[in-house]
Amino acid sequence: MNAFMKNFLRNKGAVAGLILLSIVVIVAVIAPFIYPQSPWTMVQRPFQPPMALDGFYFGTDVLGRDIGAGLAHGARVSLIVGLVSTLVALLIGLPIGALAGYFGGIWDDILMRFTEFFQTIPSFALAIVIVAILQPSLSGIVLAISIVSWPPVARLVRGEFLSLRSREYVQAAILSGLSPMNIIFRQILPNAISPIIVLASLMVASAILLESALSFLGLGDPNVMSWGYMIGAGRTVLRQAWWICVFPGLAILFTVLALNLIGEGLNDALNPRLARKGR
Length: 279
Hints:
Blueprint: H1 2-10, H2 12-34, H3 67-103, H4 105-119, H5 123-134, H6 138-164, H7 168-175, H8 180-188, H9 193-216, H10 227-234, H11 243-270, H12 272-278
Helix pairs in contact: 1-11, 2-3, 2-11, 3-4, 3-6, 3-9, 3-11, 4-6, 5-6, 6-9, 7-8, 9-10, 9-11, 10-11, 11-12
């Protein structure tokens, strides 16, 4: 653990990403306390520019809603969608990739053809179709993002299992009579966890972008405020009130950037030899 933290903290970009993400998480946690009113509440005149009024540091939108409240409450939505959809995608992709990589043969063919079926459909188009069928809601968005996100997990896990199943400790476990499930989840998976962790951090960023895109198109949950919805609501008045789109856009940019920097730092910390070769 000490070596991991040392390698991670050596990456200045990863440290900067961790600081940025920590700020976003803190804002999401304290959002109900700093903005107790609903972000949908009309609190002032429309189109008030940033810093024009005391307490409205980010201005107001087309209906007089506080942009700051929308940013704070939207952070909660983005993080929840990103984390939950990534977790669900991992729960789907991990078993499929593990079974395909460990057993091979007909199981590999069936599971990989099933995976490739989902990869042949553009992920964003498939997400739109799923959300439209399920009706726009937070649970529907999470499910749609999970369904389009699990195939890369399955392929990564399959590749790791193919390379690890022939190792000596796996063969020894087979000869000792351990069950396949025991070998998969106790012997091989712990040794394949490093690239999965890195991929998961990048998947959270992709999920946030996908949720923002769906909300921008009007397919977000109408009961919760999100950054994508704020950008979509302000795009028609961009010249008149730039701050309505710019601030949530910057929030998405910095959050996704932070997650990508953390992913890079995790990759360097978990694979120090590859990091040194890359340099």
